[in-house]
Records
---
Amino acid sequence: MTNDTMTAERKSGWFWLAALLVMMIGLGFRLPEIGARSLWIDELYSQWFASQSFVDLWRDVPQYETHPPVYYTLLKAWSGLFGDNEAGLRALSLVASLATIAAVAVSGRFIAPSSRFEAAGLMAALFVAVNAANIRDAQNVRPYALQTLLLTLAILAALALVERLARTDDTAPRGDWIGPALMMGLTAGASLLFHNTSFFVAFGLWTGLFATLPLVPAGRRLMAFGVLTGAGVLALLVWAPYAPIFFAQSKAFMNLAFWLTPKPRDLWSAWELVIGGDGIALCLAATLLILGVIRMAQAAPRQAIVAGVTLVLPLYALLAVSFAVKPIYIQRLFDWMVPLALLVAAYGIVSLPGRLWIKAALAALVIGLSVQKVVEDFERPIDDWKMIAQVIADNAQPGDVVIAAPAEGSVAVEYYARRHAKFPPVIYVPGPYPQRGLDRIYMSNLGAPEIAPEDRTIVEAALKSHRRVWLVQVSISLYDPKSIIRSAIADQRRFVRFYGNSLAKVELFD
């Protein structure tokens, strides 16, 4: 064995050891409270959908739910194996998040033969490991962690593909573009099945890919165009079985009032996900991203184009729709950007000329600000439905009744009430979720209608046979802005005590 071989093996050993260490750091940041924190209302929606039969998930649920049923189907199978408690449900997202870290860590070895990309991949994986948005998704029973994993794989495959399509070196293996092309098509297509906004990402990714064609040698340009087109067709074929449901859901979605209001902050809030939301973190993220794109453009222009277009175009295309057509922008819809943005930022750091301590200081600053954001997120109030159910069960008296409003409150109350044998009877207003086909305004989906004045009769009937009332409400400003339900109770009962917070509240009336 030559000295060069031994040195290469030692470097490889250190690389895999570093990747494993980064994975352990990521796991350490994602495990705290994963099974202790209450599920919040959107997570409880996921659990409720996953509790439905497979037939209902694909036949009935898409008629009123706005998201694809694929995630709920996978979650149903997953919870059948690992349980539907908090930890069991969240473990699916945890695994996806850890897989994302692993993919970023090894990405530099496959994107291009460059020590910079290898170092940037490891550094970016460390940044993702301590990133607040990625940690939040890892502890969330929602499709975002899986969407991020699939889109990260698609983007990394695209970065490798543009390098291989442009090669003119006869020593390169023939057909070495096939693997990245297949991975990109399959994972991008699969991402369309987990969240409808993945279309914006696919649009940006393929726009960036086709924009690299002028940089491909003329003799390979037609072949490269065919490969990129074929990968796009593959993505659409993967998505095609869901297409009829997608078009029906999109038509129904346009009839929703929805709750979002476009704000000027939307124009930059997605970039706060990269490191943090304060001024220093946002400025640092912007600086490192610009630096990374510039340095990448100098050494790997095709990758720079794909990365830059994919980061910018999907965001501002969706914002254009949100401001001009229908408000759909939510910051968390762009959690998928985090791994790519941090890879670009890490490339900017590792490619800086000068002393090592400067690079180390910049990396430490990114990590420090990211950890600060993680701590802030853990301290933020949540929809503590577990606490609400516990308070009611501990303080309930014979003859008590729980009135929960609106309909979506049933997915929260039912999940936690079943853990308490003596939980009072529950009356849902206007009824248990989903309430479909009512002549009312619908908000988040076509199963959650706004409270109407005629719902007072439900409350008044309950008051005739029950003395004490526990009023549980969610999203009051959206579903009951005129406080119809609370007023009906307060007219006949005396307010005793308030529990919870503005996100998930319960009031006792006697």
---
Amino acid sequence: MNTKMKSFGFVLALTAFAMAQEAAPVAEAAAPAPETAAVQEAAPAEAAPAVPAQEPAAATEPAAETAPEAPQAVAQEPAPAQDASTGSATETAPVETAAPAPQPEPQPAPVADEGDMPAPKAVRGVDAESQPVYGAQTTAPVETTVRETRVYRLKAEPIPMKFSFGVQGFAGMNTLFDNNWDFEESYDGIAWKAGLFAVVPLNEYTMGFKIGALFDHSEASASYSYGSDYSKEAHVKFKMDRVTIPLLFMLKSMYSNFSFDFGMQVSVPVQDTFKYSYEKADGTPVNGNADMIDLDYRNSMDFALLLGLSIKANNYLSFDIRYECGISNAYDGVPGWRINELTSNTFLFGISFYVL
């Protein structure tokens, strides 16, 4: 309840203050202008209409005895008259008026200079900023929003695709798996490659080719059980060295350094070693190290599809992601081992340095 009464009292106080602000201009308008009041006081007695006056008192009486009491607001004290013959001032009785002298019509106040003009007062219900300022020059505002300015500043310049070349390196994971779905074994390991590359643009901004020549090293190994009761275990490891030639088609935005690469890769094996160890039925261990190229078990070329992403940090450095999906078998005609239909998948992260 106290809170409601205080709120109500506060609203009443604001209302009274607003009404007083409205009444102030009215009171100022009702008051006569200072110059008009001065004119009224300085007006001579002759301006008032003549009325019959009483007989003047004897000249021999002292001035204090003949002077009447102070006149009321309706009477004015006339100025002392001078004798035309002697030039001396003589006192006359005050003039009594039956009605107040008519007030002269108020004269309009002189227009002040624009520099002295006060600011207009605020009107209730109208924003002070929306009221016109007298004497101020108005010009059409320049409509420029912050959002338009930001868009103008953030608008990027087109990034051209130019001929360049450099060195690059990749590292990641390699997997060898059998294309036959009934063979569940796979071999996993590491892979890395390094070499040269070049970018050849097809147009000014968005399309180009990326070609290279890299040395590729990969390893893959696995262990699996075999035998009638699967009590025996075999260990297998593949080690390959190849020269790969990727050919990628590049697509990028005109205003971005981010590009999407896709294409294919041809690999030529230069070394391929197959290591194995297992136990015979009588428990005799067997260890072997076969050169698959010399034994003519290795195919002469490998083919793979490539997908990649690349983002250029500056004119000299870029970061790459690449996935290689093998579409050809690595081995053929290997007796005793189910590796004739192995193919490889590789996932790589890379970095490229641009010389030009």
---
Amino acid sequence: MAKKGPKKGAKTRAAKKKGSTTGDDLALRELLRVPGGKPVDLAAHDARQTPAGPRDKRAGRAAMTDLAAPLADLQERLWAASTAGDRRRVLLVLQGMDTSGKGGTVKHAIGLFNPSGCRIRAFKAPTPKELGHPFLWRIKKALPHAGELGIFDRSHYEDVLIARVRALAPAAEIERRYDEINRFEKALADDGVTIVKCFLHISYDEQRDRLLKRLDRPDKHWKFNVSDIDERALWPAYQQAYELALERCSTPHAPWYLVPADRKWYRNWAVSRLLLEHLSELDPRYPEADFDVAEARRRLLEK
């Protein structure tokens, strides 16, 4: 059985001293959830806002530290439960414009977990072999196994995002993919996969500043691609493509969460907090011993 955490009142008081709220009085996923089925206007969402939780960078870092222990505990319990046949697992999907922080989120948020229980996959442009298969083929091969936390840096949504903006497939085919994605995610949910889809919402000006910083630092030049400049000209088209994906593919079994990402510290905390809320709801349990504990202890003491 998992160890009991601090008393509710004490936890809340400690958090308030650090300038942040906790799950005792906040369900972040309810605040960030995209309703689905309704038009989405990304321009109406401030990418610098901090709708709940820590209010500044210092508090955000402290809040991240507070999340480490409960996240590690829940991950261990999820893995332990899988050894007894529990098929449940978690899939974190990270999407967003270039420089929105998909890699940074993996580094800072997923860094709170034991890497041996994580399955991380960054999806690049499909290879010739992958192009010879249906678009979900490579996604299915990268799914987490029982007890694991899977992390997708980009995902199957590229096939209704860049594919739409760049006309990489016929329009009718792209239209069909939304329903195919919904059916795919419903099948995953029915099979025990908790899907946490985070759209990292960055502003146009913030993206420019981050690209400039990459140019200013020689150790970041490897992350810069000259094509990023040309892609900025397509910003409106990408925003529209994301709005359609959020509207059509935010479902009860796999909702989208719109995470303000201009403030990196808040983005990292929000994604970590969303994972904590979902893992806490799963409430995985350590399996009971399938042997006589007292007898094992007696035998061991005799040696």
---
Amino acid sequence: MRMNVPARPGEVDLPPLSARSVVLSLLLGAHPPELTARDLVAGVERFGVGGSTVRAALSRMVAAGDLRRADGVYRLSDRLLERRRRQDDAVHPHTRAWDGDWEMPVITATGRDPADRAGLRTRLSDLRLAELREGVWLRPANLGRPWPADLDGVVRRFTARPDAPARELAESLWPLDAWARTARALLAHVEGARQPADRFTGLAAVVRHLLVDPVLPAVLLPDDWPGAELRALYDQHRRELSAAVLGTAP
């Protein structure tokens, strides 16, 4: 399972702000995910992006199918609503008590082209599964997320209790120490940010990092795992930043 960990410990991946990225972040963080053109322009302008640039970005995003516009209100497309759902699940994952069982989906479909195989691997990774060997995926059965019905034709699911010690198996499937190092670097960056733009880019990196948190049972995690702290920081600063940028209640 690929994780967005930095090349060197302590680094964080913070791409520069663009009008599109700020618009998407504002809408992905809004509840409900819709804002007027006026609010979006005013919100993005706070990050030093001119109003004409924002309006041009909005037009391009509507043309590309990223956004829908009706009566001066911009809403996320269905594809981006699914991204928002994943983002919300990343910040507030649905877990259940773990009894020692592991999910084991096995790819049974054959004859798929490379693009289809790559797409399937991405979807299984998005379900917080890790590949034990080619075609065999695994994770502790502690998540309450639904299984996509359309995968039933290409994947068969089993329940297993591997012979290997559970904690050692988890460490072999996910780079947990690297994930934790990046999480701590992001915590330090967001807490130390003095400018809204720096905090904004930091929060965007936080939610990307949470998307690849395997959300393992506590007994399988290293000591001082920073997952809960990173989620709490994101919730706190997202509300404060939305209040400052859009004038909403924190």
